[in-house]
Amino acid sequence: MKGIFGRKETDPDEIPSEIEEIRRAVMDRQMPEPVEKILLKEVDKLSKISPASAEYTIGINYIDYLTTLPWGTCTDDNLDMDRAEKILNQDHCGLDKIKERILEHLAVRLMKLSAKNTILVVDDERLTRENLQHVLTREGYEVSCAEGGARALEILETRRFDLVITDLKMDKVDGMTLLDRIKAVTPSTEVIIITGYATVLTAVDAIKRGSFHFIAKPLKLDEVRSTVKKALDKGAGTVDIKSPVLCFTGPPGIGKTSLGKSIARSLKRKFVRISLAGMRDEADIRGHRRSYVGALPGRLIQEIRRAETCNPVFMLDEIDKIGQDFKGDPASALLEVLDPHQNSQFMDNYLDVPYDLSRVMFIATANTVGRIPRPLLDRFEVIHMSGYTVGEKVNIALRHLIPRARKDAGLDAFTLTFTEGALRKIIREHTREAGLRELERQISSVCRKLTRKHLKQPFPPQTPLEMTQETVEALLGPGRYHIEIAGAKDRIGCSTGLAWTETGGEIIFIETTRMLGTNRLILTGSLGDVMKESAQAALSYIRSHTELFGIAPDFFNGQDIHIHVPAGAIPKDGPSAGLTIAMALLSLLKKAPCRRDTAMTGEMTLSGRILPVGGIKEKLLAAKAAGIKTAIFPAKNQADIDEIDESIKKNIRILFAGELSDIHDQVLAAT
Ligand code: ADP
User: Fold this and answer.
1) Rounded CA gap, 211 and 202, in Å?
2) Terminal C-alpha separation, the chain
3) Which is it for the CA torsion 478, 570, 608, 583, positive or negative?
4) Dist CA 43 CA 182 (whole Å)
5) pLDDT score at 569
6) CA 122, CA 415: separation in Å to the nearest integer?
7) Ligand 1 mean position to 21 CA, how many Å?
8) β-sheet bridge partners, residue 521
């Protein structure tokens, strides 16, 4: 965004007019009074220093920045829930439960935002009543009037108001009597008394009897506005907009950002997004003090200024990825941004005056909740999104990704279709992901290649372009991924596990071997501490239960056992591989191969009990994608499995295990 006053080359004669121009620009712009005062002071300072100095440039940049911030410029919210629902459905396939939760969240938010504070104005002078009603309605309050105390009491019998503004001297029922009656019946209703006959004594008396304030006539509009605002901020009737911040969690490419965009579209707000990944410095959030020429505000204020509105939908992407070596406390800086009690006075170091962020709708995204600081997590309403099945991906590709890619590649004039087989081939052989990013890229790649072909040798107009498994293979080349399980041989000492990472579910293999040695347990494959301990616990459990499993009690004597988890460059950790490690060891010691097509997950205790683990849906999806026939889960995860859609549980056998001994026969193939 450009500043509003471009700097000219310094010409001493022109300086006064430049300063005047700046002063006028500051006064013309809508901004809170205190900010205007500060800026005018800055302009005065500028007029006294040399335009050639760095200080002058810093000052002018500062004034320019503040003058062009959207101080009170907001877009009007669309409060139509049907439209919001239609847009969410238009932009996204499936995700029914998630859309439901978003709509509920929006409904509550809109309800709170649309609830106006109610004010009753009581005065026997028609002009005062009408003036106050006009001014306060423009401030966004719902204002009713009564022409005297008696009429006010009648109205108050039927409904409650957040605030009553009453004249003091009125026939029959005067302001003080009205005040007493209101405080006796609805003490949470605030009362402001106005009068042309103000004396200190009556003012003190009114305050003692519970009135919020006492304003003398003739009324000054600014005083009325600010007193009303203070009274309503204090009162119990204040509109509470403290609703939690939505936080979408799940693997990449699953639609978190695009849901945020749809929310903005459905509310008719602007959408802005910053990624917190790798942010290292509190100044990224709060900005730098303007002590040098290049100093800038933090990213929040920068984006708000770019959006040119003070109420965009603001996505804080990858909130779990804030740099580990963050200077300062990211949680407290972000809390100040997200807390509705603090963010109306957000202090950016560069601005040096509070900026009201309370009208911004913040949405956060994260891959996992594990690394989000606890105080922040408490402010979030976490909505977890898991990966898509192949069927869901095909559906999304047909309805959203292909039409978009066709348009982007300039193939609008052609009917482009993909057969289901072609899409399944792309998904299975050219992508390995829980979300849709790679699929989107591959479809775009097919479209671009078609465009290139067309330019080389134009397709006749109206040619239907049908992508089949063969054409996809011809365009994209041989697949990069293959289902590892199909065709793989069962092996002794090697078990198949289900793991869960930030990018979704995964299949892992655990390999074990033994050799002559000195009773050592060797662990390799970039295992984290927790995984190493799981391996030790699994070995100890088997050593102490040799009889149960029919193994020689002294199998460890004079031997080394080596456990390896391939893909050694990728660090792995977590307790959920305990069961898989134990099965690999049992297979090794019993010399019975593990079934490759049987995958498992579960934490194992020293007594052989299997404890529940996380990421169940992602693990099941990964198992299906890898061609696993039987998946074994901890018995205590049965409720998670029950919640999963039946279509995902089709064509895979699911077993539950409470203890290692429950399932080892199912996993070990007959020798
Ligand atoms: P994330 O923010 O989770 O990494 P994105 O929102 O960038 O993911 O989504 C990646 C792509 O997949 C986008 O083009 C998005 O429109 C599309 N997408 C994801 N989920 C859906 C869905 N349920 N329906 C339609 N398109 C989707």
Assistant:
1) 11
2) 73
3) positive
4) 49
5) 60
6) 69
7) 48
8) 561
The pLDDT, as a whole number, for residue 2 is 44
Q: Is the CB of 94 under 6 A from ligand 1?
A: yes
Domains delineated in the chain:
12-67 (no CATH), 118-239 (3.40.50.2300), 246-263+272-381 (3.40.50.300), 390-476 (1.10.8.60), 494-667 (3.30.230.10)
Per the prediction, the chain carries an average pLDDT of 87
Distances from the Cα of 115 to the Cα of 45, 112, 238, 240, 268, angstroms:
44, 5, 10, 9, 19
Q: Tell how far the Cα of 499 is from the centroid of ligand 1, in angstroms.
A: 23
Query: How far, in Å, from the CA of 154 to the mean position of ligand 1?
Result: 57
Nearest protein Cα to ligand 1, atom 18:
255
Distance in Å, CA 258 to ligand 1 centroid: 5
Task: Please indicate whether residue 256, judged by its CB atom, sits closer than 6 Å to ligand 1.
Answer: yes
Among all residues, which ones are annotated catalytic?
576, 619
Cα angle 363, 367, 368; round to 5: 105
* AA identity, residue 141: Y
Distance of CA 625 to the CA centre of its chain: 28
What does DSSP assign to residue 66? Answer: H
pLDDT digits (tens, 9 = 90+) for 386-411: 888 888 999 999 999 999 999 999 98
Q: Which of 436, 438, 439 to mutate to test the pocket of ligand 1 (most atoms within 8 A of CB)?
A: 436
- Mutate which of 90, 248, 258 for ligand 1? The one with the most ligand atoms within 8 Å of its CB, which is 258
Amino acid at 550: G
* Integer CA distances (angstroms), 577 to 146, 536, 537, 613, 665, in order: 73, 12, 11, 10, 19
- Whether the CA torsion 71, 75, 80, 81 is positive or negative: it is negative
Q: What is the pLDDT of residue 486?
A: 56
Cβ of 437 below 6 Å from ligand 1: yes
pLDDT tens figures, 179-192: 999 988 888 889 99
- Is the CB of residue 439 below 6 angstroms from any atom belonging to ligand 1? no
Phi, psi of 564, rounded to the nearest 5 degrees: -130, 140
252 C-beta closer than 6 A to ligand 1: yes
Q: How far is CA 264 from CA 84, 102, 337, 365, in A?
A: 9, 12, 19, 15
DSSP string, 375-404: HHHHHEEEEE--PPPHHHHHHHIIIIIHHH
> What angle in degrees, to the nearest 10, is found between the helix axes of 256-267 and 96-114?
40
Mutate which of 93, 254, 263, 318 to test ligand 1's pocket (most atoms within 8 Å of Cβ)? 254
Q: Whose CA is nearest to atom 9 of ligand 1?
A: 255
Cα(330) to centroid of ligand 1, in Å?
Answer: 28
DSSP letter for 210, please: T
Give the C-alpha separation, 382 to 576, whole Å. 23
* CB burial readout 84-113, b (16+ within 10 A) else e: bbebbeebbbebeebbeebbebbeebbeeb
**CA dihedral in degrees (662, 664, 666, 669; nearest 10)?**
-160
